[in-house]
Structures are given as structure tokens and as C-alpha cells.
From TrEMBL, chain A:
Gene3D superfamilies linked: Globins
GO annotations of cellular component type: blood microparticle; haptoglobin-hemoglobin complex; hemoglobin complex
Species in which this protein is naturally found: Eudyptes sclateri
Name this polypeptide is given: Hemoglobin subunit rho
GO biological process: hydrogen peroxide catabolic process
Subunit structure: Heterotetramer of two alpha chains and two beta chains.
InterPro entries: Globin (IPR000971), Globin-like_sf (IPR009050), Globin/Proto (IPR012292), Hemoglobin_b (IPR002337), Hemoglobin_oxygen_transport (IPR050056)
Metal-binding in keyword set: yes
Family the UniProt entry places it in: Belongs to the globin family.
TrEMBL record, chain B:
Keywords, comma-separated and alphabetical: Heme, Iron, Metal-binding, Oxygen transport, Transport
Stretches assigned to the Globin domain: 2-142
Organism placement in taxonomy: Eukaryota, Metazoa, Chordata, Craniata, Vertebrata
GO cellular component: a single term: blood microparticle
UniProt name for this protein: Hemoglobin subunit alpha
Gene3D superfamilies named in the record: Globins
Length: 147, 142
């Protein structure tokens, strides 16, 4: 069980309340596909991913980015219970989607950078540390049911 | 992993933009790394790691200078950082995983201070460059 201090919970909810899930999700997924192009392997049916411009403008990337970050919002609402929250998604990513959990860590790191660009100096070192912890435990929860 | 002509140009562009802030960004990178990844502090038991520490500032400057050196000699990073590579292999022996952690914090610092410069393409190039630097610094480990 992960322990969250009062300060950490506050940093998580206050940042999250200011996040535009659709924009941030789209940007995070696009950057994942651009910065780590091998992650495109999971998205053969997304159409044109041939250049950064194509990826950023791709409507399937935007939609899927929104879906992914919306799901991340469940973590923010269920900080005390992440393994249970992500149990079904974990099974899905293992059995159906066959996604290497390393990809969850990569996306988590990208999300941090997107947040940093958005919040600038408000994204203090403590804030970054809290959010890196959060993306780490989400990645762990998503990998938990792998077998 | 190879740095393309675009990557090199992107990296050089970033570093010429930040050259006057190198010391400040180096220190901030380290501070974020120590806060976010406390295990990295184990390499600095002899340092005062409080916010504003003169030792962290000085060391941040060293790190930033080395990155600038690599960017200025981007066609031969191994040559430019050869002495540093020896130092890390023989004396410092920082576990290779930590270079990624430093790299992540450096990207965060870039995102905070120059969000519009950190386009997805530049982000990709910088990430590759930081990986290349890490690889050079650990290349003589075994």
C-alpha cells in the first residue's frame, strides 16, 4: 500500500484540477510516439504517424490521449486503492494489448514534462517528486496483474 | 541510436539559447534529481544538499558545462567527454540507471524555463542527446 502525505495529496489534486485532460492527454501521447517512436508499434491502425506533424494532428492520437489521461484521473480519485482501480485495465494491457510495462513508465515521464511545460515555476521540485511518485505507482498498478 | 543532422541542430539550438543560464539550470536539475530520486543523494554524502547549497550550485555548473561541451562537439561526444568517461568508470562509478534520472530532470528544467522551445521534435532530439551522453560516460565501465 502506498502512503500519501497530506502535502502530496494536496499537490496532486491541485495540479490535476488545473489540467485540461483532453489537451494534456493528446500532447502526452503524441510526444510519447514522437520521442520514443518504437511505441508506435501498438498503433498500427491509427493511420498516419509518419512525422511529428502527422502525429500531433492525428485525430486518433488525440482521442486516445484523452482516453488514457481520463483513466489517469481515476488514480487521482483513488490514491489509496490503485491496484484495485487498475486491476481490469492491467489484465487488458497484458492479455489483449500485450503492452510491455516499460511503456507505462515512458508515458509517465512524458506526462511530467508536459505538466512542467504547462505549470512552469509552479511545478516545484516537491511537486515534480510527488507526481513522479504518482506516475510510478500508476505504472506499477497497471503492471500488477501481468503474468 | 544515432543523432541525425536535425537532432544535432536542435540540440545546438537549445544549448545556445540556455548558455547564459547554464549554471542555474545545472543546479536546478540536480536539486530536482535529489528531491525526486532520493537514492541519487547516495553519491553525495559529502555535500550539503539543502536548497541553495553552494556545493550543489558548483556541481550543477560542472554538469551543465559538460553538457555544453558535448553539444559543442556533438559530432564526437566520446572524444569531448573522454576524460569524464574515464573518471566515471574508474572513480565515480555512478550506476548507469542514474543518468536517465538526471536526463529526465534536465528535460523538466527545460520544459519549465523554455516551454515553447521544447517542441516535440526538440524534446526527442534532446532526449536522444542525453542518452548519448549517458552512454559515453558509462562506456568504459566494463
Amino acid at each position: 500500500m502506498v502512503h500519501w502525505s497530506a502535502e502530496e495529496k494536496q499537490l496532486i489534486t491541485s495540479v490535476w484540477s488545473k489540467v485540461n485532460v483532453e489537451e494534456c492527454g493528446a500532447e502526452a501521447l503524441a510526444r510519447l510516439l514522437i520521442v520514443y517512436p518504437w511505441t508506435q508499434r501498438f498503433f498500427d491502425n491509427f493511420g498516419n504517424l509518419s512525422s511529428p506533424t502527422a502525429i500531433i494532428g492525428n485525430p486518433k492520437v488525440r482521442a486516445h490521449g484523452k482516453k488514457v489521461l481520463t483513466s489517469f484521473g481515476e488514480a487521482v480519485k483513488n490514491l489509496e486503492n490503485l491496484k484495485a482501480t487498475y486491476a481490469k485495465l492491467s489484465e487488458l494491457h497484458c492479455e489483449k494489448l500485450h503492452v510491455d510495462p516499460e511503456n507505462f513508465r515512458l508515458l509517465g515521464n512524458i506526462l511530467i514534462i508536459v505538466l512542467a511545460a504547462h505549470f512552469n515555476k509552479d511545478f516545484t521540485p516537491t511537486c515534480q517528486a510527488t507526481w513522479q511518485k504518482l506516475v510510478g505507482v500508476v505504472a506499477h498498478a497497471l503492471a500488477y496483474k501481468y503474468h | 541510436m544515432v543523432l541525425s543532422a536535425n537532432d544535432k541542430s536542435n540540440v545546438k539550438g537549445v544549448f545556445s539559447k540556455i548558455s547564459s543560464h547554464a549554471e542555474e539550470y545545472g543546479a536546478e536539475t540536480l536539486e530536482r534529481m535529489f528531491t525526486t530520486y532520493p537514492q541519487t543523494k547516495t553519491y553525495f554524502p559529502h555535500f550539503d544538499l539543502h536548497h541553495g547549497s553552494a556545493q550543489v550550485k558548483a556541481h550543477g555548473k560542472k554538469v551543465a558545462t559538460a553538457l555544453m561541451e558535448a553539444a559543442n562537439h556533438i559530432d564526437d561526444i566520446a572524444g569531448a567527454l573522454s576524460k569524464l568517461s574515464d573518471l566515471h568508470a574508474q572513480k565515480l562509478r555512478v550506476d548507469p540507471v542514474n543518468f536517465k534520472l538526471l536526463g529526465q530532470c534536465f528535460l523538466v528544467v527545460m520544459a519549465i524555463h523554455h516551454p515553447s522551445a521544447l517542441t516535440p521534435e526538440v524534446h526527442a532530439s534532446l532526449d536522444k542527446f542525453l542518452c548519448a551522453v549517458g552512454n559515453v560516460l558509462t562506456s568504459k565501465y566494463r
